[in-house]
Amino acid sequence: MAEAEPGVAAAFIRDAPFEVLKALLVRLSPKWILRMRPVCKAWHGKLCNRALLTLLHRAEPPQPLLCFDRVACSDGYIHLSDYCVESFDLRSGKLRTVLRFAGNEDYFVDEYDLEGRDAPPIIDDDFVNFDRMKHYGDAIHKPQVTVHASLDGFLLVSFSSHRRWYIINPVTRHWVSLFDPTTFALDVIGFYEHGRSGKYHVLCLSRSNVVRHEAAPTYSYYVIGVRPGERRHIGRPLSPAASKDHGLRFGVERASISPPIQWKRGNMDLLWPPQERQGYQMLVFDTGNEVFSWKRPPPVTMADDQEMRLLEFSDGNLGLSVSRKNQATLELWCLEDYRDEVWVLKHTIQLALQQMPALLQDEHLWIPAVVSSEGDVLIQSRHVLRKSLVQHPMFKPSENDAEPPFFRWLSSDPSW
């Protein structure tokens, strides 16, 4: 068979409908799509087209994220750890590195001689995606990397040893630094795209002074723009449609613990899974008008040990995973009618614990969650990532930004 003339191939690439190109490109990894850009002008033009890249992003299956902390050196006197975030491909069952780095700053309290025999042992903890400190005997283990949010292929992450926060695209390896919200006593509770401007914002929570005669502190809310990094206090604004305040002043769990999800229809709402602080109602933030309201959760019995996680179905509807700590039964609900708050039970899943001896022997809490619309279950996963090649103007390098550490150890992975 004769090879196609270059002009004919370029014409096909230039004139092919998006759906045809999508059918071809979904079979390739983002890494190979990036390599195809300099092949010719026709490919470069198509593979930099935002509309096509957005189609490819939406076709990407969600991949749950896991954080790991491994000993990087077997020598007991060299305290070096390997920190990484990995995505789990539900189709192949393989883990793929998203970001990775080595470091040891602030790993132990200062009074220890890190090079001497008094140094406590390196702790190999296989899951450190907590924003709490862990105490193991004399050693104080600080999580070095925390994933706070995942949206549109971007991750909001922080590094305790650097006191820096970043928004990164692990596929294109673009990044932008963000000031540390904890410097202003702010907790990050959400990360979202502003519908009208297309800019990305971080939603934060601030503890206010304790009001007289109240037993608990009250909270107010801030919006941080990624660029230029302005911080705005919005108080506790309620939507006119909110018939009742179900607990806005009591705050929301941090996004690293209970991540919200942005429903990109209508008002581009940001929604949180039901929490005790909100009377087990679903808190909703209208990102365009910057007001809060609530939606009814599924008709399930709420309890303190209930674990709920939001996810997005391939058809754009919202799903809610409902489970209990250390319990083998899970439910997956679908919000089929967003306006009228109609929930439908999609799956009831029973884990085969007899095939999971590690869970039966584990003395600690384990938390199962449904992570896909097909009913796949994963233990201890909070965030998901959909890989994206979409460019965004917020990724503009600054001369004052120090090179971040998280891409230095990445090996050449053919899947990225």
TrEMBL record:
Record InterPro entries: A_thaliana_F-box, F-box-assoc_dom_typ3, F-box-like_dom_sf
SUPFAM superfamilies to which the protein is assigned, alphabetical: F-box domain (SSF81383)
Pfam families: FBA_3
Residues in F-box associated beta-propeller type domain copies: 145-386
Source species, domain of life: Eukaryota
Protein name, per record: F-box associated beta-propeller type 3 domain-containing protein
The species this protein was found in: Sorghum bicolor (Sorghum)
